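Methods — Computational structure assignment.
A single polypeptide chain was analysed. Its primary sequence is given first, followed by the predicted tertiary structure written as structure tokens.
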Amino acid sequence: MSKHFTLSKVKVLDGLKLALVYADGEALTVDLAPLVKRHKTLAPLRDAAVFKKPRITDGGETLTWAGNDELQLAADNLRARAIEQAGGVSHEFIWHWMDKHQLTLDQAAKHLGLSRRMLAYYRSGEKPVPLTVGLACLGWETLQQQAGAAHEGHFAMAG
């Protein structure tokens, strides 16, 4: 796994928050409370005695609690969640947007006005996704919805 998805340090903070440091030097904070609340398998993390002892496992690719594979979270997912919680756009956002609209890399790059290579960097997480790219995804999506509404006889701005 690449440095930007390899955990090098983890520190437990108040609540269900973690301070994460990745091998590329990026330091992020992630709040796991919404995730723990939503997924029953993570309920044991509500116990402070369990939560306060995360271990970096699989060469930095995962965090594991209590030596239990059910209590394991992937480093790339934690990074994506932390970026999005901080108001940024993660590589996972790009993946989900492309999948939602059934777009190939070439199609998505064309719609966003990006080179295929640059979008591939963003999608892989190799380069941080600029906020403008996330906004372009949302803007494209809005134009598609408006185009659909125009075909149904509703008002839509020309795009």
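Note: The chain has two domains: 3-85, 91-151.
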